[in-house]
Automatic annotation (TrEMBL):
Transcription regulation is among the record's keywords: yes
Residue span, Response regulatory domain: 13-129
Domain of life: Bacteria
Coiled coil start-end: none
HTH luxR-type domain boundaries: 164-229
Listed name of the protein: Two component transcriptional regulator, LuxR family
One biological process term in Gene Ontology: regulation of DNA-templated transcription
PTM sites of type 4-aspartylphosphate: 64
Any single Pfam family the record assigns to this protein: GerE
InterPro entries, sorted: CheY-like_superfamily (IPR011006), NreC/VraR/RcsB-like_REC (IPR058245), Sig_transdc_resp-reg_C-effctor (IPR016032), Sig_transdc_resp-reg_receiver (IPR001789), Tscrpt_reg_LuxR_C (IPR000792), WalR-like (IPR039420)
SUPFAM superfamilies: C-terminal effector domain of the bipartite response regulators (SSF46894), CheY-like (SSF52172)
Lineage: Bacteria, Bacillati, Actinomycetota, Actinomycetes, Micromonosporales
Amino acid sequence: MTAGAGADAAPVRVLIVDDDALVRAGLSMILGGAPDVRVVGEASDGAEVPAAVEAYAPDVVLMDIRMPRVDGLTATEALRAAPRSPEVLVLTTFDADEQVLRALRAGAAGFLLKDTPPAEIVQAIRRVAAGEAALSPAVTRKLITHVTATAPAGVGQDPRRERALRLLDGLSEREREVAVALGQGRSNAEIAAELFMSVATVKAYVSRLLAKLDLNNRVQVALLVHDAGLV
């Protein structure tokens, strides 16, 4: 779902999912100060997410990873597998562990550390609602390092790498260039400048990549590029 941040645009609708009532209250207070963001509902466990999404129709879900009954990873996988699902931003205390990678592979558009400054939380929500990834180049590099460190040794022993290479082989040269740029953590504006395109053309290429690769968002494209060893 896409939402703008302009004065006349509808506010970005946010659902907060966290088992800690104090965390939910703090996030609601932070987001309440942004005129273009509105908290439409809260949930205290991943088990409550499907009903809450149906009731509140959020554009973005802030999803805690660790919850007692249904964790945020399971909830994210189920949510992103459904049609017309909202974007998901994962909340975590760890910035590059296996659970974060699993959430990103499932279709989360990014993640936020729980001690992220308020202004950056609001900006991340705006970016995700606008179809951008909420991963900075620095975080993307850290994820690349983690993916590389946990990958099986030897190309022939890594089915994830082989699958990634097979999927990327079906792209045109220009599509592949855009995919690699996404893997480097570039924004649409940065890709446009680097590849001498308009931002609108970059957006069209990203949409084409998602359709061709059968992926949910640009973060999954970036991880596919990392799996293939192209960045």
